[in-house]
Amino acid sequence: MYPDHTPQRAVEVHQPTPIPPPVVHPAPVVPVQPGSVPTVASIVLPDGRVVTGYAIDTVRPEPVAVKPPVSRAAVNVALGGVGFLAVCGGLLLLTSFIAALTAFITQLITLAAVIFGGWIAVQVLSGSGHKGGTTVNIRRAVFKRNHFHG
Predict the structure, then answer these.
(1) pTM exceeding 0.70
(2) Coil, strand or helix: which one is 133?
(3) Would 54 disulfide with which of 38, 46, 107, 109, CB 3.0-4.6 Å?
């Protein structure tokens, strides 16, 4: 079984343990009388034989409970409530939008006033390009002096 160059090994053989079959005790058969005597039906087959047996009642589903009709007034009240809530929500959103738009316009006006005021301040404080000191226009001074005294 093994090649010549491999050592031989001892092989153990395990036998399976049989499982005993379960012991079944037949339950006693107790005859039960049906609540009502079923009707006997006979059927004649095409070859002439007659088969007789009990008719099996088909299983009938439980009758569906009839739901009471919903009144039109209840439907109208419910729809009116939903419509009222929708209008209130829309007015709330519209009011919020108007408040936000007013705040935005106010900020734009404030920004324009700050920019325009800054521009005016730069014009007033900068002078006409002079870098300090006092400048006198002699020709004008002479002209004014001559004009007033002449």
Answers:
(1) no
(2) coil
(3) 38
10 Å Cβ neighbour count for 142?
10
d(CA 111, CA 86): 37
Beta strand pairing call for 50-54 and 40-44 = antiparallel
Residue whose pair of structure tokens reads 């521009």 in the numeric block? 119
Beta bridge partners of 50: 44
Tell me the pLDDT band of 4, cut-offs 50, 70 and 90. Answer: low
Q: Which residues contact 40 (CB under 8 A, 6 or more apart)?
A: 52, 53, 54, 55
Longest dimension (CA), the chain: 160
| Whether the Cβ atoms of residue 90 and residue 83 lie closer than 8 Å to each other | no
Give the span between the Cα atoms of 124 and 129, in whole angstroms.
11
